[in-house]
Give the backbone structure.
Amino acid sequence: MNQTKSFLRAALTLLLIAAATAPALPQSKETTKAAPVTDTLRASGAAPGERDARLWQKALKLQRSSIVVDSHNDILSIMFDENYDIGQSSVGKYHTDIARMKEGGLSAEFFSVYVDRSYAAGGGSARRAMDLIDMVYRAAEKYPNDLMMSYSVADIRRAKKAKKIAALMGIEGGHAIENSLMALRDFYRLGVRYMTLTHNNTNDWADACCDTAKHNGLSDFGKEVVREMNRIGMLVDVSHVSDKTMSDVLDISTAPVIASHSSARALASRPRNIPDDLLRRIAKNGGVVMINFYPIFIDQKAIDASEARAARLKPQRDALNERYKNDPKRLEEELTKLGDANPLPPTPLSVLVDHFDHVAKVAGIDHVGIGSDFDGVSSLPEGMKDIAQLPNLTYELLRRGYSERDVRKVLGENFLRVFAEAERVAARASGGQVSRDGSVRRIEGGKK
């Protein structure tokens, strides 16, 4: 165990030294050729003949001029696990590549540093996170004309002016810090600007939405994690946590929080979604709820159909689990084939936009944004099949009567406001000194 900890600290130190001392790279020729949002965008929210041409042009113009932030994209795990080059086209295979990010008018992307729960049980959570972090830097260095590593609101605005996509990172799964506030600060130094306190698994200090509760929300150490995130300027992400954990966070956080990829429970009954009372508390906190696009989280009809399908296919799934219990990759492939052969009914784009509507009405227009979950989900609504189709959301919001000012808020300005306030809270608390007054507390597994 001591050798593992020594390796971790040494690896973090080497990465920090490399980041601080590496010279700027020359401009690469490996730059994607896609133009920004164009008139030929694939808009399938309505057939071209049914779409209001003048409103569509207005939507495209607004998309071009706005800062568009997506707070959660899982393409990073694919980049690492499948050796996928995000500069190459993956149309029909994945939801994201640089060309389609440009086509969709994206200004800033948070790459999800997703650490599966298996690492919490088997070890190696921090190393997995560092491997993924390195992949973001590799992509930005390979495509410097397209991607710009960014760590602040000012960086995002600079990237927009430079016609580049701001590349940011958020850790998904608080077990990645391996119960160490020192590791939390090291991840901040490596560029991580938010952390989802849990994934679907309850960890040693916070209860998750979809697992057995062990701490009645946040443990004492979990509360200290939140305070330290406030102090250094790392956004606290309450997606995936239990309702009680979310309530505890809102009780103690001195900075606005985010839900990086969650939707409204009033419209779709899933524990991953946020109930109205907590939506109002997030608004009071000054935070923002970034809407998840996954049909199984947003469409009650899809949820009901999914549950019926699961019951119907249980014998086949059980047989596959037994047959490929020692081959997880093959098991995933076979389960995917089974699901594809038994598709769920399509979810219309209007159902997705209903969630934006609901959060805007309950929490307020200043408290809703985009948290797509592209490349982390197996299906998407009609008219939002990949990242290039983001302008369809802008068109639909305008069609529903939202003002251009309010649409800009949803597209990115709400998130930037929250990010900027978290930066101000940290500046007052730490004066930019990340470690000096930080807690050195850590816990061993199972202790609070």
